[in-house]
Amino acid sequence: EVQLVESGGGLVQPGGSLRLSCAASGFIFSSYAMTWFRQAPGKGLEWVSTINRSGGSPDYRDSVKGRFTISRDNAKNTLYLQLISLKPEDTATYYCAIDPAGRQRGQGTQVTVSS
């Protein structure tokens, strides 16, 4: 059974930083590209970033380029998302997913950017 458990969210002031983690189990982590999504209150699921199986070729939505960094540790079966220079519009629940549509995702971790 695929299990994805996100952590690391919280309340942060504009300009602040967070590091999100996603602990994966129940599948061969190194065999899958992995993706971060987010969902703001009242809005749909939004793609944020994808990384390939070996940790290369990161891709980002335009609004987070230069501020977010996706990475993975296949030895630890863990996906990461480093967030810096956070803005109020980054407020959302962040999910990691094993599929490009985000259907198989974890329970999410809340990121709130507010002064």
Your description of this structure?
With 115 residues, this protein is an all-beta fold. 0% of the residues lie in helices and 47% in strands. The protein is built from no helices and 10 strands. The strands form 2 sheets. It has a 6-stranded mixed sheet, with no helix packed on it. A hairpin with a 7-residue loop joins strand 5 (45-51) and strand 6. It is globular and about 40 Å long. The mean pLDDT is 97.
Compact summary:
By secondary structure, this protein is mainly β.
Which stretches are poorly predicted, pLDDT < 50 over at least 5 residues?
Answer: none
Output the structural class. Answer: mainly beta
Strand content: over 45%
Q: What shape does the CA trace take?
A: globular
Chain-averaged pLDDT: 97
Please supply descriptive tags for the structure shown above.
single chain, about 120 residues, mainly beta, four-stranded antiparallel sheet, globular
Topology:
Layout: E1 3-7, E2 10-12, E3 18-25, E4 34-39, E5 45-51, E6 59-60, E7 68-73, E8 78-83, E9 92-97, E10 109-113
Parallel strand pairs: 2-10
Antiparallel strand pairs: 1-3, 3-8, 4-5, 4-9, 5-6, 7-8, 9-10
